Fold this protein.
Amino acid sequence: MASVLIVSDQSLQRVGLRMLLSAEPDLTVVGDTANGAEAVRMSAALRPDVVLMGGDRSRTDGTETIRRIAHPSHLTAVHGPAGPDGQPPRILVLTSAGHEGQAYAALRAGAGGFLIEDSTARELTAAIRIVAAGDAVITPELTRALIDTVRHARAPRHGERAIGLASLTERERDVLVAVASGWSNAEIAARLSIAPTTVKSHVSHILTKIGARARVQAVAFAYEYGLVQPAA
């Protein structure tokens, strides 16, 4: 059973999402709000598995809300671990067509998945389950937007993330490039002749070293630091 907190400043969207998700036997809606600050408070108090962000909230002050939910260091001391696994909630962002470029800022703030608002109900519920399990969700349209953003961005700053890159082993770099190329764990295992469990272990170590929470953030990291080159 995955619990979901809905955040949207559009009343009808909140009602519709609540009705849709409540009809799923393995999903439960623990609350909804239109306010970013309230979303942070409710996230700490209710400890949902997934925070689903939509409406204009995902495009205005949404990045700061995502950052505060994904990195609740100031709340952990008061409320304890943010979730049953000791991790903050995973964040799935609904974005409208034409605003894909803003996904990069949300990604760096800590979002773990992105979905276009006109996705089907089945695509949305599937995405929530995937994000709740700790994996990433990103559409091809958003992948292209992220790559385009990285292509035109200025060079990354040296710091902890650059140190993380330097700390990667040669095998971890191979796995990171494979992840950024869109390969699944099974495909990486087959192509590198290693066990799927070893791939999962490598991915976990990579995320820790580069300061990322999800595979989609590792993809952006690989493009940002030139490990993978965007297609022309």
